[in-house]
């Protein structure tokens, strides 16, 4: 399974599962464009969501923030089974599909029906029913093959109920004969060549090239390319366990629907090509980013944390974001329709706090405001 690629003109991402890795191209700003400030802000968020891609903190007070920072023994679940990674993410799939998505699309029945149809198509094409999975975790490795290019290699582990025989039967049909099996340490790896776009979990557009799948046990499935699933098999056999720091970061909020943690390198920031020297300098001080997406009955909540090299660097980045927040009000006011409603709500609820060498960001928006934009 291949990486999420960054769309340089906005915050939408596209999951790509195709070949040995997908490059994140250089991102450039048109300084004459009135949207320049917004693009700079977006690129900072891209750094955080590039694993997912996607997307909680409670805004009712800072007590939960303190709890998040002092959790001593997080339940790592499937995260402990990932190979060595630069970034990890965990998704509570059943809660996302059975609770959050219906609530978010309650006022958009046509979009809800479309999402459910996409889930059924994914089930038909792969033999996997996303609703049967409790949790999905992702491990991502960054590589820098050439100047200005970052490639991501991703492996996924899913826990729940699935039929290996059904998966193979559906996969063979979808692959139209482009199917093979490999043996590795007593496990059978099923490899399908699909070369088509599907909507993964009914939510995310994905280009599936070559997909490898292997049941690690009766309740756990590994997905990726042949190399990454072999790495997952090795970890399952007790080898190469790693990622302690970022696993803990991704698990800080046990109630989150999505959690993530990532190491940040100077080369990663450089390849994003922010286009603004002062902001690029602030971002180069980051060493880790992490966060979570949560949901209440009415709201979607986002928390993002960033660890800098020292307190001064964190304060400098916090001051930069506060300035962008003030300028953002001018540009957000020009947005109309559903995007304008969502942007104004997110900006109004945005909180930025610096504690020692950590920067913490919270915001929340109404689920009803997010639903109309899903699928756009």
Overview of this protein structure:
This protein has one domain. With 376 residues, the protein is α+β, with helices and mostly antiparallel strands. It is globular and about 55 Å long. It has helices at residues 36-49, 63-70, 93-104, 109-126, 164-175, 226-236, 244-250, 266-272, 277-283, 311-332, 337-348, 367-370; strands at 4-6, 13-17, 22-24, 87-91, 133-143, 150-160, 179-184, 187-200, 204-217, 220-224, 258-263, 286-295, 299-308, 351-355, 358-366. Residues 1-71 have low confidence and may be disordered. The protein has a 15-stranded mixed sheet that branches. Helices cover 36% and strands 31% of the residues. Helix 4 packs across helix 5 (164-175) and helix 10 packs antiparallel against helix 11 (337-348).
Count of separate structural domains: 1
N-end to C-end Cα span:
23 Å
Order of helices and strands: EEEHHEHHEEHEEEEHHEHHEEHHEEH
Tell me, what's the shape?
globular
According to DSSP, the number of beta strands is 15
Helix % is: 25-40%
Largest sheet entry: 15 strands, mixed
Query: What percent strand?
Result: 25-35%
Structural class by SSE content: alpha+beta
Mean pLDDT level: 77
CA radius of gyration is 20 Å
């Amino acid at each position: 399974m291949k990486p999420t690629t960054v769309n340089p003109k906005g915050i939408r991402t596209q999951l790509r599962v195709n070949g040995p890795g997908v490059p994140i191209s250089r991102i450039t700003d048109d300084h004459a464009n009135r949207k320049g400030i917004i693009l700079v802000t977006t690129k900072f968020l891209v750094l955080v969501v590039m694993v997912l891609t996607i997307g909680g903190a409670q805004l009712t007070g800072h007590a939960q923030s303190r709890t998040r920072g002092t959790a001593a023994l997080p339940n790592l679940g499937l995260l402990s089974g990932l190979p060595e990674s630069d970034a990890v993410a965990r998704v509570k799939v059943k809660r996302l599909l059975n609770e959050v998505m219906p609530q978010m699309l309650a006022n958009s029945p046509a979009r809800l029906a479309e999402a459910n149809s996409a889930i059924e198509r994914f089930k038909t094409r792969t033999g996997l029913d996303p609703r049967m999975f409790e949790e999905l975790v992702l491990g991502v490795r960054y590589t820098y093959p050439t100047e200005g290019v970052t490639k991501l290699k991703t492996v996924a582990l899913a826990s729940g109920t699935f039929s290996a025989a059904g998966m193979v039967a559906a996969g063979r049909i979808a692959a139209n004969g482009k199917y093979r099996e490999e043996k590795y340490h007593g496990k059978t790896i099923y490899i399908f060549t699909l070369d088509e776009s599907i909507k993964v979990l009914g939510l995310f557009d994905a280009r599936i090239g070559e997909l490898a799948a292997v049941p690690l046990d009766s309740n756990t499935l590994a997905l990726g390319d042949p190399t990454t699933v072999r790495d997952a098999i090795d970890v399952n056999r007790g080898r190469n366990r790693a990622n302690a720091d970022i696993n803990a970061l991704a698990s800080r909020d046990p109630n989150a629907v999505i959690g993530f943690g990532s190491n940040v390198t100077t080369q990663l920031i450089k390849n994003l090509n922010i286009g603004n020297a002062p902001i690029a300098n602030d971002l180069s001080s980051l060493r880790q980013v992490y966060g979570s997406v949560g949901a209440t009955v009415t709201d979607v909540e986002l928390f993002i944390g960033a660890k800098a090299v020292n307190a001064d660097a964190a304060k400098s980045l916090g001051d930069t974001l506060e300035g962008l927040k003030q300028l953002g009000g001018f540009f957000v006011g020009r947005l109309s329709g559903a995007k304008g409603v969502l942007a104004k709500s997110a900006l109004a609820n945005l909180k930025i706090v610096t504690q020692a060498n950590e920067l913490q960001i919270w915001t929340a928006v109404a689920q009803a405001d997010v639903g109309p934009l899903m699928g756009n």
